[in-house]
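To close the chapter, one final illustration. This time we ask the reader to focus less on the individual chains and more on the assembly as a whole: which components sit near each other, and how the overall shape emerges from the parts.
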Amino acid sequence: MQSIESKILYNDMLAEGYFRLGLEWKTPRVKAGHFVMLRVSDGMDPLLRRPFGVYKVIGAKGSASKGTGIELLYRVVGRGTSILSAKRPGEVLGILGPLGNGFPSPRKGLKVVMVTGGMGIVPLYMLASQTGGILLFGARTKKERFLLDGFKGPGLKVKTATEDGSMGTKGLVTALLEKELAAGVVVYACGPLGMLKAVSRMCSDAGVRCFVSLERSMACGIGVCLGCAVRSVNHDGKENRNYKMVCSDGPVFDGEDIDWELL
Amino acid sequence: MGTPLKKKLPKKPLEVTIAGIKFRNPVMTASGTFGYGAEFAPFTDIEKLGAIVVKGLSLYPRQGNPGPRIVETPCGMLNAIGLQNVGVDDFIEKKLPLLKGVRTHVIANIFGETIEDYMEVARKLDGVKGVSALEINISCPNVKKGGIVFGTDPQEAFRVVSAIRKSTSMPLITKLSPNVADIRVMVKAAEDAGTDAISLINTLTGMVIDVEKRRPVLATATGGLSGPAIRPVAVRMVWQAAQVAKVPIIGMGGIMNANDALEFLIAGASAVQVGTASFIDPDAAVKVAVGLEEYSKKHSVSMKDLTGSLKLA
Ligand SMILES: Cc1cc2nc3c(=O)[nH]c(=O)nc-3n(C[C@H](O)[C@H](O)[C@H](O)COP(=O)(O)OP(=O)(O)OC[C@H]3O[C@@H](n4cnc5c(N)ncnc54)[C@H](O)[C@@H]3O)c2cc1C
Ligand SMILES: Cc1cc2nc3c(=O)[nH]c(=O)nc-3n(C[C@H](O)[C@H](O)[C@H](O)COP(=O)(O)O)c2cc1C
Ligand code: FES
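The assembled structure is written out below.
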């Protein structure tokens, strides 16, 4: 973990409201599923840093996680991301990271199935490039297709579902997952809460291990403010109220450990 | 006669003494914003701090409130953590040893839901090696008194601080809530009960509403406001407290840099605490200390002489 001032290498618009941000960072030691806290403005408003998943390490050789920088993908949804989108190459941003636990590597012999919704695709890029497997890509329309650009991995197969049917199967990505659930599969998912909840339930019913990457509003990103709590299930049944911090215990959790009803 | 000679700067111009304890500089971290201290070691030199104030400790571990627990506000944030903590026993056994050998003071912030709870936590910490003082968070609802907050009723505040005074020989700092009409009454109550110092302010109660859902954003509806948004209120309250206080004051509320800290010192504080700023920059408190040193050199003034040096027309 480091707190550094990093130079912006590029901040390119990929599509209306979507950006690709390159940040200089010599030895990031990033693992798939890690995130960073970015200081988007030097002023007092907005005050807090914003969390973003690491899309990839740039300048890395092979699958080694060392490189010359990191790339983030973000969507403009509010003030912080809008300030970020106006930043130019050469400007400097504060990064805190790499943070979180990251995705656990799949056990040998297991077939990897990744499920994403919208920007949830971000932390899966690094995982896919290492493990390959099947990527179930969920989007609203085919306009989000660019999110798949450059996605690669050993023998990676991509299946798409769009809500309006403009690309791939019409409907929710969870319908695609139904067909993939079988013994010998491990699922990794990131996306909207409703999707993660459904994925987790389906996996649980099918007896398939599933790892989900969660989002919560964050202030510190390092487990000290205790602001990003999610309710977890205690398997020994002793304590009925138990919280985990998304930033420091997660953001990746075993779906079985999350109390989806009381989240 | 000419102008008086510039006062000679003492050898350690940043050092301050509060409740009989010498602090290398007047900058501490605020409870609940610095974990149990060791979490910040990767990002900042914690030995450059005057003191580390740890997360509020209760008799038993507490799970805290459901989420959402935080929301950003203009120049600040609301939190409703619900005082989640590992409990005083685990703190002593597991967290405190992580700071062993670290050359700075550790102050344990404590709270309870009954006077007996407060006393028991204080007793457990009495004489524990590595803890220099106790900071009593009285912004907590008294369950036996139907939830009225200890920190908003001077009689309750007096009762809880007196009881703790009898349970421990450790230096006591009473941390005051700003959610009162007249802070001076609370200062007097804490002093009469035997506190060695006062710290203020804790968070101001606030609320944010999601207009689409017509629901409060926080699961508990209201939360505590912190950050630069509250600074002018905090400076005013420290100034008012300083008019009546006989014991030293530790000021806080929205301190982001040395300039902000100086406002508190000049208003009458002997030391300051840095809270929310540590989330934005984990090195913020140390930077405040560095900035105070620069000011001290530039103006040839010690921290002690700066305290309460406000000039009024
Ligand atoms: C671990 C983690 C990883 C993330 N990775 C990415 C990423 O790779 N790419 C990306 O584009 N975004 C990512 N996000 C979400 C991103 O942090 C938010 O979109 C961003 O903080 C919004 O800031 P803002 O100031 O623009 O919006 P605000 O003005 O703060 O909010 C605008 C709107 O966005 C909503 N919003 C705010 N924060 C979040 C959030 N955390 N999740 C969902 N909605 C939110 C608000 O409720 C509000 O409706 C991630 C979040 C987390 C917790
Ligand atoms: C997330 C969070 C948790 C806090 N927890 C505690 C606590 O456990 N005990 C306490 O006395 N004060 C607690 N506080 C209050 C701070 O110590 C401080 O009084 C307040 O935040 C004002 O300072 P600031 O504006 O610099 O943050 C907490 C504040 C925040 C933001
Ligand atoms: S964001 Fe502070 S504990 Fe997770």
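The interface with chain B takes residues 1-3, 39, 44-49, 94, 96, 216-220, 222-231, 239, 241-243, 262-263 of chain A (CB under 8 Å). The helical segments of chain A are 79-85, 124-131, 173-180, 193-206. With these observations in hand, you are ready for the problems at the end of the chapter.
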